[in-house]
Amino acid sequence: MPSLLAYIQPAVVLYDLSKDGIMVTGLDGKISYTNPAIRELFGYSVEQVNGRFCTDLRHDPNFRFDKLLSELSAHDNIIRVINCSGNNGKNFTVTVNYTLLHNLNNEPIGVLFVFKEKIGLEEERMQHFHHQINLLKA
Fold first, then answer.
1. Are 37 and 19 in contact (CB under 8 A)?
2. Residue 57 belongs to what H/E stretch?
3. Predicted TM-score (pTM) of this structure
4. Contact between 24 and 32 (Cβ < 8 Å)
5. Is 127 helix (H, G, I), strand (E, B) or coil?
6. pLDDT one-digit tens code per residue, 58-114
7. Distance between CA atoms of 24 and 11, rounded to whole angstroms?
């Protein structure tokens, strides 16, 4: 069975070029991949994020990764507007698309987070994230 990193490797070139912040975690919440945009958004280096738990970076005491997994097991894709705090203490609001990743046997293997700093109306957000999902699935 290929690793999570091997699974996402074909999309990493697209992820790295995206202006949206992209993070991939395993089912344990441990960060496997971050693109340059998300590291810039949160103010972290690769060394500071890869291998850490996503809950360490969220700066939100109410965020529970196990709760997110439970919700994703029922919906596969969730879009939320959340407040975050970067490494430098800067507070900002982002729209986040959480998507459950599956292997070729349709078994869940990880979570894809796509962070968009500013986006307009709900319909525009939905179109944007559906476009992102289609690109990432290609």
1. yes
2. helix 54-58
3. 0.80
4. yes
5. helix
6. 656 678 899 999 999 998 889 988 888 888 887 888 888 999 999 888 899 999 999
7. 11
